[in-house]
């Protein structure tokens, strides 16, 4: 009853109707989008109110469900799943179209990201292939260089040994030349004494007259032999001097060759250490570096592929 004793006008919502609407909105606010306003009266106003409220809730429910479905599809990469705008009007339709535009943008971004991933994986494959090829070539070159270095080192050691033997031979030749010189000096001394004796014998043969003629002939022959011996000794001394000079030059050359080959041997040993590494020196060889490079690049590429 209204004030003044008047009856309520037909179609005016009662407290029960308002309570039903309020309870429905509370349920919807709590997340129950399937909640609807029950019948609140038979009047035209009650029926229109219930229809309008439930129609609004139907649209909100449809909007929320469609937005959820579109978002779930986008999360799975199914960007072709569109937000259906059938029956939507006003702000609902605008929001749905905006969601579809966002889905289009997400699809383009996903395509770009996919292309970037493909490019990244392709780059990783190319990098791995290039590095593996280079590391294999470096390892092969290191092996060949190591073999060559070992061969050169063996050759250098052999050359040093040959040069040392040649030096010993030339030194022995110089010693033999000195002995020959000493022997020739002794021969010259004997020849000098022989000429003196031959001169004395010639003088004595002259004193003896005819009895000493035969002895004078012998003394003359002895003198001639002594002179020839002296001449031959001088020639031998010249040859010995030439041999000694050549031997001295050969000694200098062989000593220089030995020093050069020792330096070459040291350089080759350094190359071998650089190629194969040296545990004592704590250095890493070229072939080992190639293996390290291959392992590091493989690890890097694996990280790229898994990211």
Q: Which consecutive residue ranges, at least 5 long each, have pLDDT under 50?
A: 1-12
CATH architecture of the largest domain: Orthogonal Bundle
How many domains? The number is: 2
Q: State the end-to-end distance.
A: 74 Å
User: How many whole angstroms does the radius of gyration measure?
Assistant: 60 Å
The overall strand count is 0
CATH class of the largest domain: Mainly Alpha
Helix content: over 70%
CATH superfamily of the largest domain: Methyl-accepting chemotaxis protein
**What's the mean pLDDT score?**
74
Shape: rod-shaped
Summarize the biggest pleated sheet: none
What percent of residues are in strands? under 5%
Q: What is the count of helical runs?
A: 5
Give helix and strand order, one letter per element, not per position.
HHHHH
CATH topology of the largest domain: Helix Hairpins
Please state the structural category: mainly alpha
Give a verbal description of the structure.
- With 307 residues, the protein is an all-alpha fold.
- It is built from 5 helices and no strands.
- The protein has helices at 15-29, 44-75, 90-208, 213-276, 286-306.
- The longest helix is centred in the middle third of the chain and has 119 residues, at 90-208.
- The radius of gyration is 60 Å and the shape is rod-shaped.
- InterPro entries: Chemotax_Me-accpt_rcpt, MCPsignal_dom.
- GO terms for molecular function: transmembrane signaling receptor activity.
Write the layout of secondary structure elements.
Blueprint lengths: L14 H15 L14 H32 L14 H119 L4 H64 L9 H21 L1
Pfam families: MCPsignal
Keywords: Transducer
Family: Belongs to the methyl-accepting chemotaxis (MCP) protein family.
């Amino acid at each position: 009853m209204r004030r003044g004793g008047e009856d309520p006008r037909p179609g005016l919502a009662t407290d029960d109707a308002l309570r039903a609407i309020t309870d429905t909105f509370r349920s919807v606010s709590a997340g129950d989008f399937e909640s609807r306003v029950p019948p609140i009266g038979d009047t035209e106003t009650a029926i229109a109110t219930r229809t309008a409220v439930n129609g609004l809730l139907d649209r909100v429910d449809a909007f929320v469900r469609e937005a959820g479905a579109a978002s779930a599809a986008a999360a799975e990469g199914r960007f072709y799943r569109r937000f259906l705008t059938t029956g939507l009007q006003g702000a609902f339709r605008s929001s749905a179209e905006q969601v579809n535009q966002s889905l289009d943008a997400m699809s383009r971004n996903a395509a770009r990201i996919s292309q970037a991933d493909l490019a990244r994986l392709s780059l990783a494959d190319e990098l791995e292939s290039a590095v593996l090829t280079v590391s294999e070539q470096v390892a092969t070159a290191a092996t060949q260089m190591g073999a060559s270095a070992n061969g050169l080192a063996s050759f250098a050691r052999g050359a040093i040994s040959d040069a040392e033997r040649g030096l010993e031979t030339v030194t022995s030749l110089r010693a033999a030349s000195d002995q020959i010189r000493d022997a020739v000096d002794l021969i010259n001394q004997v020849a000098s004494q022989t000429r003196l004796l031959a001169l004395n014998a010639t003088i004595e043969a002259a004193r003896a007259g005819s009895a000493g003629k035969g002895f004078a002939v012998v003394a003359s022959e002895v003198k001639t032999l002594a002179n020839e011996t002296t001449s031959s000794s001088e020639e031998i001394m010249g040859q010995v001097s030439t041999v000694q000079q050549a031997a001295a030059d050969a000694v200098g050359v062989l000593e220089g060759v030995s020093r050069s080959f020792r330096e070459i041997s040291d350089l080759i040993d350094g190359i071998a250490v650089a190629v194969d590494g040296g545990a004592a020196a704590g250095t890493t060889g070229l072939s080992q570096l190639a293996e390290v490079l291959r392992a590091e690049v493989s690890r890097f590429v694996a990280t790229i592929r898994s990211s």
